[in-house]
Amino acid sequence: MYMTDDVPTGWVKPVAKLTPESLKARISNLRTELADAESQLREMEEGTRLEALVKVRNLMRAFELTPADLGLEVPPRRRGRPRKTQS
């Protein structure tokens, strides 16, 4: 009949059926890999964030800008309980 490439011919190596234990072991391995990848991602994000802050601070110094010049509100100096507002 028709010859196609996706139909194996000759001897085909048998594939072992997955067991619940092997699946659980694979899941735990994948979870540890995921945890490692997530920790690397957090480190990379932190490094990138710090680099961006340094660049912004250097540009602000170079052009003698203040946070007020950039439209950023300065946090209030007063600590403690907020004042009561009359309603």
How would you sum up this structure, described in words?
- This protein is mainly alpha-helical.
- The model has no long low-confidence stretch (mean pLDDT 86).
- It has one helix spanning 20-62.
Task: Give the tags.
87 residues, mainly alpha, 1 helix, 0% strand
The total count of helices amounts to 1
- C-alpha Rg, in Å? 30 Å
Beta-sheet strand percentage?
under 5%
Oligomer: single chain
What fraction, in percent, of the residue positions are helical?
A: 40-55%
Q: Give a quick account of the main beta sheet: strands, pairing sense, barrel closure.
A: none
Unreliable sequence segments = none
- Average pLDDT taken over every residue: 86
Question: Overall 3D geometry?
Answer: elongated
Write the H/E string, N to C.
H
Write a short abstract of this structure.
The chain is mainly α and 87 residues long. The protein has 1 helix and no strands.
